[in-house]
Design a protein that fits this description.
Destroys radicals which are normally produced within the cells and which are toxic to biological systems. With 287 residues, the protein is mainly alpha-helical. The chain folds into two domains: 146 residues, Peroxidase, domain 1, CATH 1.10.520.10; 114 residues, Peroxidase, domain 2, CATH 1.10.420.10. The protein contains ten helices and five strands, in the order H-H-H-H-H-H-E-E-H-E-E-E-H-H-H. The strands form two sheets. A three-stranded antiparallel beta sheet has the order 3-4-5. A two-stranded antiparallel ribbon has the order 1-2. Strand 1 and strand 2 form a beta hairpin. Bound molecules: ligand DDH. The site of ligand DDH has 24 residues, from helix 2, helix 6 and strand 1.
């Protein structure tokens, strides 16, 4: 018969699930890192790629993946995220049709799910930009600051109080590294499992200023092995924030649902989708 003309490759949900599965496999196999998982640093890469969004100018956000370039890759807030970008290079080589900006956000969704968190529905549609689209330094939050700074930075992205607190629950995962941010230590006892433990500890533990030469941070009275950043404690010092911290500490299901909704929103800030929200894919988590 007639040879069918070959158009451009149009990936389907099944193709994106293959990318998800490859990320999940690599997460399961590359355990010689930090507390045994690259998952937390992937969650942070997706967040820092997206959290540069400015609703007034429509600049920044995950569309573009401009953190591939200096100066953005060298912004202080992005120290250490090269580990996450490098982790994803073999995936990009295996699926060259996916853009970096779709890959980084898909990896954030995959990491939350693979670490035991809620489903993070995701859709493609991001294009990689060039160096001219790099955002100016200073758009991501500074951990040494207070509640006013949190509201200013996340308000610029378009989030309300409830969403700000839910997003910060990602600190259930991973740790701070003295050679990256200057801060040091994990927030909770299970840094590779997504839970509401961050909120429970904020409410239940007594947090004292750590005595050390590093930047001001807090340590738990109980074991002295955990840490909180000044911005984390701002979530219980501010009454309006604290009300949400208490809700999430009490009810893990509520936290999972509200976190999922707002992390989806974060990953989509400023992206000029042709698809609709109801077209999002819900990926199968690995066994
Ligand atoms: Fe964060 N975060 N984050 N964070 N973050 C750090 C690590 C991780 C702030 C500062 C820091 C979010 C919000 C804030 C994750 C996810 C998210 C570190 C340590 C600092 C500092 C970095 C290092 O030394 O390696 C501040 C300030 C805020 C704020 O809200 C004011 C949000 C919204 C998220 C998200 O994902 C939705 C994750 C995960 C990590 C652990 C990374 C790792 O390597 O482990």
């Amino acid at each position: 018969g007639e040879a069918t003309p070959k158009g451009p490759f149009v990936p389907t949900q099944a193709d994106y699930q293959k990318v998800y599965d490859a990320i999940a496999d690599r997460l399961a196999n590359e355990t010689d890192y930090d507390d045994g998982s690259y998952g937390p640093v992937l969650v942070r890469l997706a967040w820092h790629a997206s959290g540069t969004y400015d609703k007034e100018t429509g600049t920044g956000g995950s569309n573009g993946a401009t953190m591939r370039f200096a100066p953005e890759s060298d912004h202080g807030a992005n120290a250490g995220l090269k580990h996450a970008r490098d982790f994803l290079e073999p995936i990009k080589a295996q699926f060259p049709w996916i853009t970096y900006s779709d890959l980084w956000t898909l990896a954030g969704s995959a990491a939350v799910q693979e670490l035991g968190g809620p489903k993070i529905p995701w859709r493609p549609g991001r294009a990689d930009g060039d160096i001219a689209a790099c955002t100016p330094d200073g758009r991501l939050p500074d951990a040494s600051k207070d509640h006013r700074h949190i509201r200013a930075v996340f308000g610029r992205m378009g989030f309300d109080d409830r969403e700000m607190v839910a997003l910060c629950g990602a600190h259930s995962l991973g740790r701070a590294h003295a050679d990256r941010s200057g801060f040091d230590g994990p927030w909770d006892f299970s840094p590779t499992v997504f839970t509401n433990e961050f909120f429970r500890l904020l409410v239940d533990e007594k947090w004292n200023q750590r005595k050390w030469n590093g930047p001001a941070q807090f340590t738990d009275k109980g074991t002295s092995t955990l840490m909180m950043l000044p911005t984390d404690l701002a979530l219980v010092k501010d009454k309006a924030f604290k009300q949400h911290v208490e809700r999430y500490a009490k009810d893990s299901d509520v936290f999972f649902q509200e976190f999922a909704d707002v992390y989806v929103k974060l990953l989509e800030l400023g992206v000029p989708f042709k698809s609709k929200p109801e077209d999002r894919f819900v990926f199968k988590t690995s066994e």
